Amino acid sequence: MIALLVAQERLGRDPESGWWKLQSPPIYLYEPGHQVSGQVAVFDERLGWKNVPNSVSTTFGRELTINSKGHRGAEYTYTKPSDVSRILVLGDSYTWGYGVADNEVFPALLQQELREAASQWQVLNAGVSGWGTDQEYLYLQAEGFKFAPSIVVLALFVGNDPSENMFSIRYGLQKPVFLDTQLTLANVPVPKPGNNIPNQRSSARPSELTAAIVKGIQQACHEQGCKLVVMKFGRILLPADASQNGDPVMREVVAEIGQLEQLLPPALNGSLYFDLDRKLEDEGAVAEQLIQGNDHHWNALGHRRTAQLLHEFLVEKQLVQ
Asked: Which residues make Cβ contacts (< 8 Å) with residue 51, sequence separation at least 6?
């Protein structure tokens, strides 16, 4: 992503005083090739960046809709209807749905699975491309719980989420960072694009920091009276010889994934851990069937199988009917 600063101020109503005043305009952030990928975000001083609300475009020629709350897909109010329950899905570009249409993303397909079972559920897709687990946690605290979810699904992509959690700059953009496993928050308010602020790094290992963030999400969900489901995936996308090849970076990634897979179940203390990688491997799936081209994001089949297997897990654990 690269930053484009919009210079003009605009007149708006101050949310605290109610008075009209000149306000700073949004700062839009564009991924190189955004005309094709549809990757446009807006700067946010708490999260670094987020989806552009009320935007309609395409991703690789397929329908891409962001609602007024910054979620991909259908419009939902903060107030939950009394006759439904909600699932809020947190994640990165795999959850956001890079390269697939609105109705092909796994949260939308999970919604369809639930409707076919005559269940009264709404599935809200809060995925944002490029987010780490840290940004997802901060979003959940500041905004996600306003939707009164009964279940929070954390789609944890082990391919790069742990490394993204380690730094205050990713993809050339400033973001918040937790400096240690006690979740000491730094780089907030997030500096605007263009500021020459040094990259800060957490002192913890990627796997340990990620496990601590997930535990923080679990505790927050417990306090809000909702269930947390951690859906771990991404190992299936690694080369078969990833742990033995000559690339030291790849070997380190594999080692951190293995450590994280050991840390997560005990860290969750009874929360629900769904190993999507293992499910896909058990049914003989191979990465080439599930991804699109060279960008390694799920294709329509990858999203469909993810939705189906996640639905089966939720039914098995008696979280949905």
From this structure: 41, 42, 66, 70, 71, 72, 96, 128
3-class DSSP assignment, residue 145: helix
Over the range 56-95, which residues count as b (16 or more CB within 10 Å of their CB) and which as e?
eeebbebebbbbebbbbbeebeeebeeeebbbbbbbbbbb
Helix (H, G, I), strand (E, B) or coil at 34: helix
**∠ CA 154-233-34, rounded to 5°:** 80
Q: Is the pTM of this model over 0.85?
A: yes
Overall domain count for the chain? 1
**Residue 124, domain member (yes or no):** yes
- Range(s) of the domain holding residue 91: 66-316
CATH number at residue 207: 3.40.50.1110
CA atoms lying within 13 Å on the CB side of residue 203: 8
Structure tokens at 27: 């700062």
In a domain, 164, yes or no: yes
> Sign of the CA dihedral 190, 191, 192, 194?
negative
Q: Does residue 4 lie within any of the structural domains?
A: no
Residue at 125 is within a domain: yes
Q: What is the pLDDT along the chain (321 residues), one digit of tens a residue?
A: 555 544 444 545 565 566 665 557 889 999 999 999 999 999 999 999 999 999 999 999 999 999 999 999 999 999 999 999 999 999 999 999 999 999 999 999 999 999 988 779 999 999 999 999 999 999 999 999 999 999 999 999 999 999 999 999 999 999 999 999 999 999 999 999 988 899 999 999 999 999 999 999 999 999 999 999 999 999 999 887 776 766 788 888 899 999 999 999 988 877 899 999 999 999 999 999 999 987 889 999 999 999 999 999 999 999 997
